[in-house]
Amino acid sequence: MNKVVLIGRLTRDPELRYTGNNTPVATFSLAVNRPFSNQQGEREADFINIVVWRKQAENVKNYLTQGSQCAVEGRIQTRNYDDQNGQKRYVTEVIADNVEFLGSRNSSNNSNNMNSSASNAGPTPYDFGPAPEPKGTDVDSNPFADFGASIEISDDELPF
Description:
By secondary structure, this protein is mainly beta. It contains 1 helix and 7 strands, in the order ββββαβββ.
């Protein structure tokens, strides 16, 4: 079974391209917090490349921007190619079957939330390279500043 579910924020605006037969394909990088802190007590994030195809690719391009939060459901795919210098390069990415728009960096964009899905198939010929670091390090511009705040859940409050 090859199934991935991720929730995170976009590290850059999605890039939309079209294949030779005019099929839309969008790519973006998703920053996903790790569920633990490092030895310095800081939370680290993984930057994961996402590929989405067809109508959903166009929706991602139209409604998501850097800092937008979304959930991605899909599968991991690996591929390799030879670069311009003849070096073999390996790429691991998530091929999204479903992208759910959870919110945006700016609350005024929350009206753009939507859910769409499309079937995806086929490898993509693009080299996405490493994900760029998110911009800004102060709390006001850090989309992960309040991620990981503790919540309390008690079975005593359940009605059954």
